[in-house]
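## Example record

The block below lists the input lines for one assembly entry, exactly as stored, with component labels intact.
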Amino acid sequence: MEQRPGGPRNSIWTLRQRFTTVYSGFKWENRFRPLKHEHWINPVLYVEYEDINGTDKTLKEVVGHDVESDYLTSNAEARQEHKREVELKLILSSNTKGWNFSENITAEKNLSNAPWEFGYALGASRPLSLKASARRCTFCRQNFTVGAEMYGGLGDRYSFGLKDTAHYLAPAAAWNLPSGWTLRLSPGFGLNDNSHAFLLRWGVSREITGFGDMVRRMFGGRP
Amino acid sequence: MKLALSLLLVSAVLLCASAVLANGQNAAKDNKPNDDQSKDNKSAEIYGELAKAPEKASKRVNPLENDPEAIAAGRLLFEDHCAECHGDKAEGGKKGPNLRAPEVQNATQGTLFWLLTNGVVRKGMPVWSKLPGPQRWQLVRYLKSLGVVQPVPAETAIKP
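Predicted C-alpha cells for the full assembly:
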C-alpha cells in the first residue's frame, strides 16, 4: 500500500488543488424492505449499479482497501479508468425512544474481474424534539436531527479484516425545512493513517411525492 | 455500455408492465356491481387491517391525551404527511381511504397508533415509524378529534 505523502492535515488541500468536479457516470439504486411490519430490527436490502470513471471521488461509503492515496491521481489520469460496480447492502435499522440506530454491511464488486470488497457503517440519530410544534416553524427543534456515524472498510474477499483500511467518525446533522427540502451536513474525521484527515459530506434532497402516479398516468393508468 | 442499456431496457419493461397491471386492476374494480354486499366487502378489505392490531397494542393509552397542543400539532403533521393520499379533510383521497369512516373513528387510539407504526405496505400505506412516537400519538389525537363523516353516495349527491 502506498503511504500518504506529507502530514495528515495538508492532504485535503492537496485534493482541492488537483481535482475538479466533472461528470463521472451514473448510478442506479433501489431499496427493498422484506418485512411487512415494524420490528425491533428492520432489515432493508439495498442494491446499486454504477457505471463511472475514476474521476468519481465521492466517498459515500468506504469499502475494501479504499485509502486516501487512491484519490491522489489527477482527473485526466483517472478518466481513463472505467468502473462498472454492483453494490449490495444490508441495512439494519431500529427505532426506539426517538432514536434511530442503523447498521450497514456493504459488499461491492467491480464487474471487471475484481474481488468482492466489504465495508460497514454504524450510526445513531435523534430529532432534537420528539413532539411536533403546534405552529408552523422553520427553526423548531423537531426539524433538526443530530447524530453520529462511524464507517470504514473491511478488506476484500482475499484479505478480510481491518488491515490497510480507512475508518471515519463523523457527527451528523439534518435540517428538515417545512417546504420539504432536507439539508444534511456531516464532517468526518479520519481515525487512522489510511483515512483522509477530514471529510465534509453534505447533501440537499427533496422527496418527490406522487412520482409513481405521474409515471402511471403517462402510461394511461389511473392514480 | 451494453450492460447499462440492458438495465435501462429491463427497467422500462418492468415500468410498462406495472402500469398495465395497475390499469387492469382499476378497470376490474370499475366493473364490480355497486350493491351493498360489494360495499361491505370493500369496506372490510380497506379497514380490515385495523382488526389485525394485537390486543396489547390496541389497549395502549395515548400519553398525549391531555396535551392541549396535541390536536393542533397533529393537524400540521397530517397536512405534511397524510393529506396527499387521504385528502385535506381526511375524507379519503386519490389513494387513501376515508379516515372519518366509523371503522377508523371507532377504533382505539392504540390501534391507530399500531397501524401508523406498521403501515400496510402492500396497499400503499407507508410505515411511519420514522416519525417519533410522540408525533404519531399527536396524529392519532387529531384523527380522533375529527369525528365520523360518511361519504355521500354518488347517486344521491345533489347536482348543481
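The two ends of chain B are 59 Å apart (CA to CA). Confidence is low (pLDDT under 50) at residues 18-33, 156-160 of chain B.
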